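Figure 3 (text version): C-alpha cells given as input.
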C-alpha cells in the first residue's frame, strides 16, 4: 500500500512539473506500478455499459422533467 501511495504521489508531482524527469530507478518503479494497475478489458467494457445506462437514465429523467 505504501508503494502504491508513493507511486501515485510521484505521478501527481510529474503532472505539475514543467520539466521531464529522468529515467532513474524511481521513474522505472513508477512505470512498473502503473502497468500493473491497468484495468482488464472486461472491466472497461463493464464500466462503459454502466456509463451508457447512466447517460440513458439522465436523458430519460431530463425528458420527464421538461414534460
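Below: residues designed for each position.
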Amino acid at each position: 500500500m505504501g508503494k502504491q501511495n508513493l507511486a501515485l504521489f510521484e505521478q501527481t508531482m510529474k503532472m505539475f512539473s514543467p520539466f521531464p524527469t529522468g529515467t532513474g530507478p524511481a521513474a522505472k518503479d513508477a512505470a512498473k506500478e502503473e502497468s500493473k494497475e491497468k484495468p482488464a478489458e472486461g472491466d472497461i467494457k463493464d464500466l462503459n455499459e454502466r456509463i451508457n445506462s447512466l447517460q440513458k437514465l439522465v436523458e430519460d429523467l431530463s425528458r420527464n422533467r421538461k414534460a
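The chain has a mean pLDDT of 78.
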